[in-house]
Citrate synthase (Agromyces ramosus), 421 residues
Amino acid sequence: AATLSFPGGAAEFPIRTSVEGNSSIDFSTLTRQTGFTGLDYGFVNTASTQSAITYIDGEQGILRYRGYPIEELAGKSTFLEVAWLLIYGELPTADQLGEFDEKIRHHTLLHEDLKRFFSSLPHTAHPMSVLSSAVSALSTYYEDSSDPHDPDHVELTTVRLLAKLPVIAAYAHKKSIGQAFLYPDNSMNFVDNFLKLNFGNMAEPYTTDPVLSKALDRLLILHEDHEQNASTSTVRLVGSTGANLYASISAGIQALSGPLHGGANEAVLQMLARIRDSGEGVGKFVDRVKRKEDGVKLMGFGHRVYKNYDPRARLVKESADEVLAGLGVNDPLLDLAKELEQIALEDDYFKERRLYPNVDFYTGVIYKAMGFPTRMFTVLFAIGRLPGWMAHWREMNLDPQTKIGRPQQLYIGEAERHYPS
Ligand code: MLT
């Protein structure tokens, strides 16, 4: 058993250990024993999702995919290797990974008609809206091979989404800056192909940059899954209705786009730029946060689950130093972010509330150094999160026992009223 404290009390609750030896909190029993539903933390939790994909211990700051610590995966694996692990449950053999990679390269091209779809959208469209709309549109091209109950269709759709999402993302970027779309170069690996689609142009040959490739691959790994967050539970909920993978992922992208979820990496950079431009200094900004001044929020800090340092944030911070040094970039926003972190971590206000930098705090600085515009940051989060979303969708949908989802409601309105006569 472990002790969970929440506003108004603390309770002992059971830990469930699976046959593979993975342990997780037994939330159903907890809810029955204590009446705690998650509402006390300000979010609603149906307390019934069982999953063997990702384990988080927010008190200790632990994150594991299929039992493997995130630190080891980020240091030793590639994005596609971890995608395989999340989706199929095991680290792939060299042959399995090679075959997976080949299949993905084979499916990168988008239907030519989709170009007209992109050109019908305004160039001011947020790339997350473009991404979600285009993924939704994919199901119109593959209606005959996207049956959610046909395992072959699910395999094909899984590969198609992994292959096409980066291409759609790059097109959304190119469209927003008024540049021509490039065709994928399937001689390149996943990350280099994506970087070329974004930063290559028609006039000059593209040269790969190992610092950028390694850093982006690592960032994508760090974003691959995070159990039942808003977007993943959206993907599961939509998928539980029998909607296909394209529809479910498109809904997940929309959920991720909000500033309280994936959109926070964009909001962090905007906040840092505002602090820099105002010239007020970090200390004054922190004071205004503590006074809860209207519209002043410390973005990228705190997490519903982590009451300790988010292990991903630690790795992202390391990457920020490596990438900026590797590219020879000196960004005052990174210095501001570090100063902000230091002041906050030493301040009782933040210590008492157990507020630490989260995964969004340093990512924007890296993406900016790579050359991505701010509005692309959450799109990069979505590419990283895709394998996790699909792993959850498949875990749920390939289980014949799955039922349609229905979040639990606590009715708090009037019991019964009589219509005025
Ligand atoms: C995520 O990675 O999805 C974010 O940290 C949000 C969350 O897990 O609630």
